[in-house]
Write a structure and sequence with these properties.
Layout lengths: L3 E11 L2 H11 L2 E6 L2 E5 L8 E5 L4 E9 L2 H8 L8 E2 L7 E6 L5 E6 L39 E9 L2 H12 L2 E6 L10 E5 L7 E2 L3 E5 L4 E8 L3 H13 L3 E9 L5 E6 L5 E6 L3 E2 L6 E3 L7 E4 L9
Parallel strand pairs: 1-4, 5-8, 9-13, 10-19, 14-17
Antiparallel strand pairs: 1-5, 2-3, 3-4, 6-7, 7-8, 9-14, 10-11, 11-13, 12-18, 15-16, 15-20, 16-17
Length: 310
């Protein structure tokens, strides 16, 4: 069936587009266009947009999009139950898509032919002088106090009622494969959570583009955006604090995926993450099973509460 190459964007419905824009600018995104009650935001990489805010009465997660390998993928997906026909994308970058609905109502877009945007200017990563190597020479570190540039969408996390069925749906339609599991030791079939990544064979990809968690309350847990380096995570943390936003959890380093993370709440209560320094893997990666509690998923730094994933 289909083969996803990367996650492209997430979509949220919000009651106030002005508040959404103010927060997303402070979080490090830039406006990419407006179409009536729809606002698009981009990062500093070549993706034309990574976040859509749609005006609506209630705040809710709508769905996400993935770039697919070929136009033929779209034709195959359009023939499946719960899929739209192949449609033109009425958003920055254009292209074609098939919009598919999961059992819990999430809309997952399979996209092909979207045009890249010109990357926006951002500073280079800051070389880290360690005890054993000193690559930064005759250059001091000076961090400006402003919104730190978001580079791209890294992943998002869904709560679903039927974990095995949702994972099977994503694997069949997008070709995603497991990187790690959360659940009792020994048997992945009994897992309550699965980290999924795109399958690009020998090519290195992010440890995960999604985490799927079984629950009786379906919805989004968070979406996560990559920033340049540790200084960007910390500078973003300080900037968002001075802007008066609600901090959720961080800064720390994850166990599964190894990302250095910092979670915030947007004006509508949704959890949103800055991260850097995540694992990349290829076809040689072997999944493991994590059997601890949520507060044990942090290697150092702020530990989330035990009910973090509930």
């Amino acid at each position: 069936m289909g083969r996803a190459l990367e996650p492209l964007y997430v979509r949220y419905q919000v009651p106030d587009l002005a508040r959404a824009e103010a927060f997303l600018r402070d979080f490090g995104m830039q406006p990419a266009g407006r179409d009536g009650d729809r606002l698009f935001f981009r990062g500093h990489s070549g993706a034309p947009w990574i976040y859509e805010a749609v005006r609506g009465a209630e705040a809710r997660f709508l769905g996400a999009g993935f770039r697919m390998r070929s136009e033929a993928d779209l034709a195959e997906l359009a023939a499946l139950e719960g899929s739209s026909p192949v449609q033109s994308v009425d958003a920055p970058g254009g292209g074609s898509r098939v919009r598919m609905r999961m059992d819990d109502g999430f809309e997952i877009d399979a996209v092909h032919g979207i045009a890249a945007a010109t990357p926006l200017a951002a500073r280079d990563p800051i070389a880290l002088n360690t005890a054993s190597a000193k690559p930064r020479r005759n250059r001091a570190v000076r961090i400006q106090h402003h919104a730190v540039p978001v580079m791209r969408l890294g992943h998002f996390v869904l709560h679903v009622r039927n974990h095995p069925a949702a994972v099977a749906w994503l694997r069949r339609r997008l070709g995603l494969i497991p990187s790690d599991y959360m659940g009792p030791p020994g048997d992945p079939a009994q897992a309550a959570g699965t980290f999924l990544r795109v399958d690009r064979g020998e090519e290195l990809v992010d440890h995960h583009c999604m985490l799927v968690l079984g629950t009786d309350k379906p919805g989004v847990h968070h979406c996560s955006f990559e920033v340049e380096d540790l200084d960007a995570v910390m500078a973003g943390h300080d900037y968002l604090r001075t802007r008066g936003y609600t901090h959720d959890c961080g800064v720390g380093r994850h166990l599964l995926g190894s990302q250095i993370f910092d979670y915030w709440r947007d004006p509508f209560g949704f959890r949103i993450e800055h991260y850097t320094d995540g694992d990349v893997v290829d076809h040689r990666h072997q999944p493991t099973i994590f059997s601890g509690s949520a507060d044990e998923t942090t290697q150092w730094g702020a530990r989330p509460p035990k009910d973090f994933f509930e």
